UniProtKB/TrEMBL annotation:
<dbReference type="InterPro" id="IPR019191">
    <property type="entry name" value="Essential_protein_Yae1_N"/>
</dbReference>
<dbReference type="GO" id="GO:0005737">
    <property type="term" value="C:cytoplasm"/>
</dbReference>
<dbReference type="GO" id="GO:0005634">
    <property type="term" value="C:nucleus"/>
</dbReference>
<dbReference type="Pfam" id="PF09811">
    <property type="entry name" value="Yae1_N"/>
</dbReference>
<keyword id="KW-0963">Cytoplasm</keyword>
<feature type="domain" description="Essential protein Yae1 N-terminal">
    <location>
        <begin position="78"/>
        <end position="115"/>
    </location>
</feature>
<dbReference type="InterPro" id="IPR038881">
    <property type="entry name" value="Yae1-like"/>
</dbReference>
<keyword id="KW-0539">Nucleus</keyword>
<protein>
    <recommendedName>
        <fullName>Essential protein Yae1 N-terminal domain-containing protein</fullName>
    </recommendedName>
</protein>
């Protein structure tokens, strides 16, 4: 009776002791641990190998995407900077050509406006002493009114017409054209109004030696 009671009471403890003392169980546990360590060391286990392969593929794809993104960014930046540099160079070249063509005409046009304004606003007695004849005074007044009736836009249009007429004359001189074409070309009018105004002012000043204006540069 006592032996049976003791066996029931300590059955669990006895079973645990058997497990701890069983050499076969210990050997199997050690083998399992060794197998796990080998999986970590050489990657021979299928589960770990698959995970590593998936990680490598994701990393490779990400690197390709990043490389392509950087290439596109640098390509876009380079294209934009190239276009900007080209625009700046073209604008500067156009400015240089335009300035070269217009600076002298603009300077002369400013002289015409300034001189005619100054003479037209003189007192009548002083203007008669400086200019002399009535015809010269009338011519000066007409030039003053003609010049100041033109706006800045009108002056630019006249200057553009002058450039176009000059190109047409150069083409007539350099191209081998028939007599009919030459006759039609001769019908192109000379509309260089800005230069005409300057030439008229020069003529009036030459007839009025009392007025000292330096027109030659």
């Amino acid at each position: 009776m006592e032996g049976r009671f003791a066996e029931e009471l300590y059955s669990e403890s006895l079973q645990l002791s058997k497990l701890q003392l069983d050499p076969t169980s210990n050997a199997n546990s050690e083998q399992n641990l060794d197998r796990v360590e080998l999986c970590h060391e050489d990657g021979s286990c299928d589960g770990f190998s698959d995970e590593l392969d998936d990680t490598s593929e994701v990393t490779g794809e990400w690197m390709k995407i990043e490389e392509k993104t950087r290439y596109n960014q640098h390509h876009t930046v380079g294209y934009r900077e190239g276009v900007i540099a080209g625009k700046e160079a073209s604008s500067q070249e156009g400015f240089n050509i335009g300035f070269k063509q217009s600076v002298l005409v603009g300077y002369n046009w400013g002289l015409v406006r300034g001189v005619t304004s100054a003479l037209a606003n003189l007192p009548d007695g002083l203007r008669e002493k400086l200019i002399g004849t009535e015809d010269q005074i009338t011519g000066l007044q007409g030039l003053y009114e003609s010049v100041h009736s033109l706006s800045t836009t009108d002056a630019l249009r006249l200057f553009n017409d002058e450039i176009m007429d000059k190109k047409a004359r150069e083409q007539r001189e350099n191209a081998d054209t028939s007599s009919l074409e030459a006759g039609l070309a001769e019908q192109i009018p000379d509309r260089s109004g800005l230069r005409n105004h300057f030439a008229e002012l020069r003529s009036l000043l030459l007839e009025s030696p009392a007025i000292k204006v330096h027109l030659d540069r």
